[in-house]
Specification:
The complex is a heterodimer. Chain A has helices at residues 4-33, 36-52, 63-81, 89-95, 97-100, 106-117, 120-130, 136-143, 147-164. Chain A is an all-alpha fold. Chain A has a domain at 1-84: RNA polymerase sigma factor, region 2, helix turn helix motif (Rna Polymerase Sigma Factor, Chain: A, Orthogonal Bundle). In chain A, helix 1 runs antiparallel to helix 2, helix 2 packs across helix 3 and helix 7 (120-130) crosses helix 9 (147-164). Chain B is α+β, with helices and mostly antiparallel strands. Chain B is globular. The chains are: A mainly alpha, B alpha+beta. Chains A and B meet through helix 1, helix 2, helix 6, helix 7 and helix 9 of A and helix 1, helix 3 and helix 4 of B.
Chain lengths: 175, 244
């Protein structure tokens, strides 16, 4: 027999969980897709898939990586559905200017544009580490890489960003 | 023995790495200490850069509403027209109430925004660790605020005297069962009543401390409920011994 009260409570909890996580999930999707509209579509679809599969989330503490995995799959599906032409990064930056602009902080705007220019293989682990708080081992597990490969990508990501942003890189180690 | 090249490579890959060998190298190499500081500043900017502003209204329309409309397991409940009108009227009323409460809370909110902004500048403070800050260092950070922290209230893993709104304020990180919680002792920021905030992934409370300004306590991520943050705030508040 169904338990409508328990079901309502569970739905309310799940909705609250979605609410608390969605800003970071949207940010993650945005940096993944480099397109606000696409990021919103991906997160919306993710929420719907998660809603249908909520019984498979046994531990609310594990919700963030669970959602993130769904987002990555959903984003990959958009590539299966559409054939994207080669992207011009400068065009992407111009299109997403309102999202990248930081009021009164030109350096931050430039840093955001530099993150846009990073290759996806460096950008994604960097966002997972800095924004989502993933450890190296967690990134490795999610991306199917070795810990050493993740660390190399993170090293290259920061090194490239620092060069693009005109940081003093005289002490940065060579490749 | 670790060489500078290895240290910097490790820091560039993982600036929050708190490995004992890295710490040992840091303690003995002035140039790498400068490098680590420079990298920490860059990391703070990087975290701020990644936290792009997301429009909550847009998310409400595009992300949450479809879930509400679906109900249990994708079933779409029928909404009679008069209920939609009622819902629209309720939304307007709710919107007005929210706008009014935001207007009333404006000074507190801008204080919360500044606290959150400061957090983004020191991301390394959030590391989960069981290494306490040495007691003399903790006292040194707190002394100008004329306060002492009783260590029985929790392990303090980070203590720094930070510039905040033109004053030096103690910035502590206390490790709790649910993860690290940041505490800022804001003796210069008087507040009439306690306020909760939830901004840019940070949730917390700012509580007035009679005669000593206020105390900001916050956490990031979904690990801790706001009530638990309030519990930590109460515990921290009772662990502070004011010396003036």
């Amino acid at each position: 027999m169904k338990d409508p009260v328990g079901g309502n409570q569970r739905r309310a909890r799940f909705q609250a969980l979605c609410q608390s996580l969605r800003p970071d999930l949207l940010r993650f999707a945005f940096w993944l897709a480099r397109d606000r509209t696409l990021a919103e579509d991906v997160v919306q679809e993710t929420m719907i898939r998660a809603w249908k599969a909520q019984d498979s989330l046994l531990d609310e503490g594990a919700a963030k990586p669970w959602f993130l995995t769904i987002i990555r799959r959903e984003y990959a599906r958009t590539f299966e559905r559409k054939r994207f032409v080669t992207v011009d990064v400068d065009e992407l930056i111009a299109k997403e200017e309102p999202m990248l602009a930081a009021a009164d902080d030109q350096a931050l705007t430039e840093l955001r544009a530099a993150i846009f220019k990073l290759p996806g293989e460096y950008r994604e682990p960097l966002v997972m580490q800095v924004l989502m708080g993933y450890s190296t081992a967690e990134i490795a597990a999610e991306l199917g890489l070795s810990n050493a490969a993740v660390l190399t990508r993170l090293f290259r990501a920061r090194k490239q960003l620092r060069v693009m942003c005109g940081e003093d890189t005289s002490l940065d180690p060579e490749e | 023995m670790m060489v500078c090249e290895q240290f910097r490579r490790a820091m560039l890959a993982e600036p929050s790495n708190d490995d004992a060998e890295l710490r040992l190298h840091l303690a003995t190499c002035h140039e790498c200490t400068q490098y680590a500081l420079q990298l920490r500043r860059f990391e703070g900017r990087l975290e701020r850069a990644l936290r792009v502003a997301v429009d909550p209204r847009l998310m409400e329309q595009r992300v949450v509403t479809p879930l509400r409309a679906r109900g249990p397991r994708g079933a779409r409940p029928w909404d009679p027209p008069h209920r939609r009108w009622l819902a629209a009227a309720a939304s307007v009323l709710l919107g007005t109430a929210v706008a009014f409460s935001l207007w009333l809370a404006a000074p507190g909110r801008s204080l919360a925004a500044d606290v959150v902004k400061h957090m983004a500048e020191e991301p390394n403070a959030w590391a989960r660790t069981d290494i306490p800050v040495p007691e003399p260092r903790l006292d040194e950070v707190l002394i100008d605020s004329h306060v002492r922290f009783r260590l029985s209230a929790g392990l303090v893993s980070y203590a720094s005297s930070c510039s905040f709104r033109g004053h030096k304020v103690p910035h502590l990180v206390v490790q709790t069962g649910s993860g690290p919680v940041t505490v800022m002792v804001l003796t210069h920021e008087a507040l009439r009543s306690a306020m909760r905030f939830n901004e840019q992934g940070y949730r917390g409370v700012i509580v007035p401390v009679h005669g000593h300004g206020s105390l900001a306590v916050l956490e990031r991520g979904p690990d801790m409920d706001i009530k638990a943050v309030e519990g930590v705030a109460a515990r921290v508040q009772s662990a502070l011994d004011w010396t003036t």
